[in-house]
């Protein structure tokens, strides 16, 4: 950040400063400054500046945010290279002063009352380590953002013609909680586009919050699985609504870089857990 004198770069905070604020909002940016800038405006309007802070991780050093962004009380973390989503979150956590972390993609925009709803749910459920909001598209339609843990049948249904059969459709409906009753309050996992994390309740991975072996995809599945295995819970909070410009790049083309990364992360997940583990009973 030395080449941008007006910047306010974040540094790793000393232990005595950690937890001095109620919340740190973490925005992971990779060549999405326009969306990030718009999200910052909304976060500033909704968050309490006395007890909350905003950290932006720039995962692409070749780009810098518009100059006016630096005029707002935001701290920036510059990654020396693209370290992936998990690596970016870990970088931000080392600089965070908040007791709770609100991790966001730039295209996940909290609607009025969404952040307080997540914080209220965290206070109500002492075992909740990860809290997931309801994600909706531009028309306000709910996105299937919370899911059961993968089974081999789930992957077949999602990636092969089996998904067009009656059995495959039932498998996908169960996986996406499309059973008519809607998603329960306790879910296996949810998309990492927006999530409230309590680092004190969550078991660590090699001392880190997120497992950096998952460069992109599956890091949210791994995070939630570790929460369940550590005796904690993953909670779905539909009262907290975030508008999400969902891009399913890994499903848009049969052969793509996103698909390759998804497959690589899935393989690493299989090797790490020696299969596809389910939620502990």
Short overview:
The protein has eight helices and ten strands. By secondary structure, the chain is of the alpha/beta class.
Description:
- By secondary structure, this protein is of the alpha/beta class.
- It has a single domain (15-149, 182-247), classed as Spore Coat Polysaccharide Biosynthesis Protein SpsA, Chain A, CATH 3.90.550.10.
- The chain is built from eight helices and ten strands.
- The protein has helices spanning 33-46, 84-95, 114-124, 152-159, 166-175, 219-229, 249-252, 257-273, and strands spanning 21-29, 52-58, 75-78, 98-104, 108-110, 128-136, 146-147, 189-190, 194-197, 233-244.
- It is globular, with a radius of gyration of 18 Å.
- Residues 1-8 have low confidence and may be disordered.
Search tags:
281 residues, alpha/beta, Spore Coat Polysaccharide Biosynthesis Protein SpsA, Chain A, two-stranded antiparallel sheet, 31% helix, globular, disordered N terminus
Summarize the amount of helix as a percent range. 25-40%
Biggest sheet strand order reads 3-2-1-4-9-6-10-5
Q: How far is the N terminus from the C terminus? A: 48 Å
The overall pLDDT average reads 88
Question: Helical region count?
Answer: 8
Number of β-strand runs: 10
Radius of gyration: 18 Å
State the fourth-level CATH superfamily.
Spore Coat Polysaccharide Biosynthesis Protein SpsA, Chain A
Secondary structure class reads alpha/beta
Parts with pLDDT < 50 across at least 5 consecutive residues: 1-8
Q: Quick one: overall form?
A: globular
Number of domains: 1
Order of helices and strands: EHEEHEEHEEHHEEHEHH
């Amino acid at each position: 950040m030395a080449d941008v004198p007006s910047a306010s770069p974040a540094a790793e905070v000393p232990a005595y400063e950690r937890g001095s604020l109620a919340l740190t909002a973490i925005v992971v940016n990779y060549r999405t400054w326009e969306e990030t800038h718009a999200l910052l405006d909304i976060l500033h309007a909704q968050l309490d500046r006395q007890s909350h802070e905003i950290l932006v991780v720039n995962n692409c050093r070749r780009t810098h945010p518009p100059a006016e962004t630096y005029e707002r009380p935001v701290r920036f973390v510059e990654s020396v290279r693209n370290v992936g989503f998990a690596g970016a979150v870990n970088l931000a956590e080392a600089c965070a002063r908040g007791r709770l972390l609100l991790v966001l993609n730039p295209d996940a925009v909290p609607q009025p009352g969404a952040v307080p709803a997540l914080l209220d749910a965290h206070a109500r459920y002492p075992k909740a380590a990860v809290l997931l909001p309801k994600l909706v598209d531009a028309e306000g339609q709910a996105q299937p953002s919370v899911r059961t843990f993968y089974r081999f049948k789930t992957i077949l249904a999602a990636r092969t013609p089996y998904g067009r059969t009656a059995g495959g459709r039932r498998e996908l409906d169960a996986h996406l909680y499309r059973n008519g009753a809607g998603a329960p309050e306790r879910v296996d996992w949810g998309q990492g586009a927006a999530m409230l994390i309590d680092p004190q309740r969550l078991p660590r991975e090699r001392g880190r919050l997120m497992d950096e072996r998952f460069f992109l995809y599956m890091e949210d599945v791994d995070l939630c699985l570790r929460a369940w295995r550590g005796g904690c819970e993953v909670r779905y909070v539909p009262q907290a609504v975030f508008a999400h410009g969902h891009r399913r790049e890994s499903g848009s083309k049969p052969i793509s870089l996103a698909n390759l990364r998804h497959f690589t992360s899935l393989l690493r997940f299989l090797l790490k857990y020696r299969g596809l583990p389910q939620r502990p009973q």
